[in-house]
Amino acid sequence: MSANTLEKTLQKERMKMILSERKRKILLAVVEDYIQDAAPVSSKDIQEKYLPDCSSATIRNELSALESMGYLVQPHVSSGRIPSEKAFRLYVDELMETEPLTGAETALIDRYFESYADRMGSVEGVVANVAKLISDITNYTSVAVKSFAKSECIKSITVLPISDDSALVVIVTDTQVLKDNVIRTENLDDKSASKASEWLNRMFAGKSLDELKNRQGPMEIVAKEFRSFRSLYEQVLNLLVRLADHRENEVFTEGRAKIFDYPEYSDVDRAKHFLTSLENNNGLAEAVSQPREGIDFSIKIGEETGIEEGCSIVSARLSVNEKTLGSAGVIGPVRMDYRKVIKVLEHINTLVAKVLSDDGEE
Question: Which domains does the chain have, with CATH numbers?
Answer without folding.
Answer: 17-95 (1.10.10.10), 103-147+249-361 (3.30.450.40), 154-245 (3.30.390.60)
